[in-house]
Amino acid sequence: MTPHPPPIWDGVLRRLQSELPAFALDAWILPIRVREHERGLELLAPSSLHRDRAVRYLAAIQRHAAAEAGAPVAVELTVELEVGGNPKEEPGEVLPRALQPVPARVARAPAVATPWVRVEAQAQPVLQYRFDSFVVGPSNVLAREATFALARGRRLGAGAIYLTSPAGNGKTHLARAACSELQSRGRVVYTSAEGFTTELLRGIRGRDTSAFKRRFREDCGLLVIEDVQFFARKTSTQLELFHTLDHLRAVGTPVVLTGDRLPSEIPDLDPSLASRMASGLVAEIEPPDAALRRAILRAKAAAGGLRLPEDCLERLVEAVRGSVRDLEGVLIQLVESAALLQRPIDLELTEAALRKLGRCDTERPLGVQLVISTVGAFFGLQPSDLAARSRSRRVLRPRQLAMYFCHRYTSASLPEIGRALGRAHPAVRNAIEMIERAVLERAQLRYQVEELASRLEALRRR
Q1: Average pLDDT, stretch 370-399?
Q2: CA separation for the pair 219, 238 (Å, rounded)
Q3: Which end of the chain, N or C, is less surrounded by CB atoms within 10 Å?
Q4: Domains of the chain from N-terminus onward
């Protein structure tokens, strides 16, 4: 059984989670091992890099420890000792200049036999997320503002928000930030579709669902349920969720739901429940465009006390065009590699980090207008024809293909692609999905897609 964190440190973590950026907390504080003794707290960082980053927050740790204990607490921070009593770092180790920390005096704790307590990364996970650490751009601004307004007490429509996006683009951050905002003002119930189902089944098996209903209806000041797409094919759970949402709507309790697709697109979901889920504000979060990726990388690096060289930053923006989670993964790989190899972050190290994660694409993304003109020329059309309001068969399919290839070969977001072709971004998403389905069934369309892909690949390699 995993031991619980010491009481004072557990309280310190809760306070830090509402104060520090989530990236800094995850990267530099949570990996620390901790022990309480009669003199205070002993903190062991897993490496010299962690120690030198964590020392920036030492004053805050001491302040919160004193608040938890009701008296001043001595806090010692050093590098963890290996089994033989030798530190994991070499004496006199020098960090590269790009990673140099602020100098600080740090006491070294003696090697003792008492077992260390590992602070679990999932301790109080909801409190790690805040609205001010969420980087905003055109692809997520509606979701952020709506969730923030709900958390501040503003009633939006039916009092519910449905956040939808592909995995890793920030819907969990916003849902948990709402929990953090409301934590001190009322009882927050945060769970996943799986957790909701498990609790319901426990009550059904025990032939008493009163505790379940009390938790999710009566004692609830905010209900957050993540990944609702996993309610598909769970008929009895869907019925209970429908009644729960209906009850909370009647009494005015705010609700935040998240899913990787719209309610109407979840297979085997009861239409009444899908309608209830979508009865409030539905906010889609698109993958970040280049400007937002740049801002996210800068913010994440700054939260960890780093400044990325501009050429490295631009290379990451260009190469990683997926989710926010993908950006964080590459950044962590880059920072840890620089620390372990004791060298500054440069383009060579950046390329190595991208290769390790399978993201070293030397081909450059194309521009939206170039893709549109290439598709138009294939069909004997001008870009202005594709952007016109016409829905004739002669223009409709080429326009859908232009949207599909813009999504595939450019770094533009769906709203940007839509603006270039005079359409809203839901129309772009529908066009992409239609082409992906139809290309498997129609030989002529498959030929067109293959030929256009060949032409665009040639343009990328120039």
Answers
A1: 91
A2: 21
A3: N
A4: 7-120 (3.30.300.180), 140-284 (3.40.50.300), 290-356 (1.10.8), 368-460 (1.10.1750.10)
